Fold these 2 entries.
Entry 1:
Amino acid sequence: MHTDVNALFDNLWQNYLSVTPSAVKVHDLLGSTQKDDVINDHIALRTFNHEKVGLEKLAAHFLAVGYKECGEYHFEAKKLYAKHYEHSDPKQPKVFISELLVEQCSDELQAIVNDMVAGIDEAAVSADNFLYSGTHWQVSSDTYKKLLAESEYAAWMSAWGYRANHFTVSINELAKFDNIIDVNQALKDAGFKLNSAGGEVKGSADVLLEQSSTLADDFAVTFSDGEMTVPSCFYEFALRYAKPDGELYTGFVAASADKIFESTNAR
């Protein structure tokens, strides 16, 4: 496992850029020329609640570089469970890890996922590069579509595997923008399509967190029976508000996160 938190995030970022070309354009649009003010609020990763690759196995990579567990979240309709992690240095990005509760899904989905996970070498899970290692299996486009019919989350995992599902711009740190409405408008003016599930802005000042996101890029995946273009990763935007004690809220809002997951939905 990595011992350097910055090296870990550099690798995650480069891997994310390789399938999310729009991220560079977002940077150019929102950042100021005076300083590097596009600061990453958090990343998110996905997995299955399988003992070989469960949430805790991914979290171990972050615990090894100074993170600690901070909150847990339930998404009953999507059959997901999640936790978030924070570093002892508040300038480091937060981490949101979710897992699909496979046993709540159909027998067919369970069989497909178990087959995928069976192909992962045990040693790979603790290797330095696991969190940005992509897929350790190959499924057919037909299998992808079967998963998609039941769980977008499972289908996304079958195509993309282990990598940051999204990075998140901290609006609090931007020099050119101080609210989420202006950020969203700038993105739309530049031709980006936003996730409108539950409204373009998820959350509010009342829950101390406002979030929005682009729709995932469309990117070609080589399945076992040929190439198909499917949604890859996306960029999120977060504005955090101060708690009564004056400190910025650092957690997540389940109702908002539920809609953010839909940024990778096929359209």
Entry 2:
Amino acid sequence: MDQTLVEEYRGGALECVHSGHICGVSISGAVKYAVGDVESVTYLRSSGKPFQAIPVIRHGADRKFGLSDKETAIMIGSHRAESFHVEALESMLAKIGVGEEALVCHPTYPLSVPASEAMLRAQKPKRSIYHNCSGKHLGILALCKTMGYPMEGYFEPEHPAQIEIVDTLAYLSECPREQIHIGTDGCGFPVFAIPLKHLATAFLKLACPEVIENLEIRSAVIRITSLMNEHYEMIAGSERICSSLLMDPNIVAKGGAKGVYCFGLKKEKLGFALKVMDGSEDEWPIITASILEQIGYSNQETIDRMYQLTPTDMINDNQKIIGTNKAVFTLETRFLS
């Protein structure tokens, strides 16, 4: 059963309640921290992008096409189509040798409000590369050209690139492949649902690749997570939680639509996955800050950045404090043998 994670008060009265689940696993693979149901089956959505990028890096598609580190990093990102994102994406199109028509993700305007407003003022059309998943799609198309896979249907579950992605996720999450539920994401890609504890395990391994026995996957994970930290702006964008967390070189983090958020801590050797059941993303920073505080995380600057994104004080358009946001959960500590 889910538990209350965040309460919002306006004028002293409770206005909103956000419930969900949290799971934290140790390097042994055992559940160390829990709120709600750690077995809750959760769609990864875009939190799965680091795993979807592993076959691309494993088979050297980034090197084959001479992609820069920033261009490679945006394959893992949910970008906002800010100017620096678009520059990288246009360069990738040219280097890989594909047109936007090859992308299954639908043309749209940028998720960045300033970028979208600029496009509208200039009367520029929607484009597929403005879609926040376009970097991922370009990465898989690069993989197809590298491996000789068909470009057509690269997004279908039975495509060899997609089969390798599922196998990779099963391996890192320790979730049996036959238990991974496959749906379709908003961008047209397969999307996977697994129990929250397996998702936390996968992010533990992103943070602690030394436990990955497959050397090719381990090497790909090390490169991917290094890029996420070094080029955090490509993973999300200005004033976004992923980029703010990834400024901390001790953290590997990625969120997805409908309330799922995940991160791994390198020094502490912990992996966390959480799900806000109403699908809201606004609570991610305050929930993450509370988790870090409760485990005694040492980097206060990282915690402070979370509270800057979601302040405990609710401020209206006139910059007046009119209520409060409060994380109200307590991590249940599991005693490990």
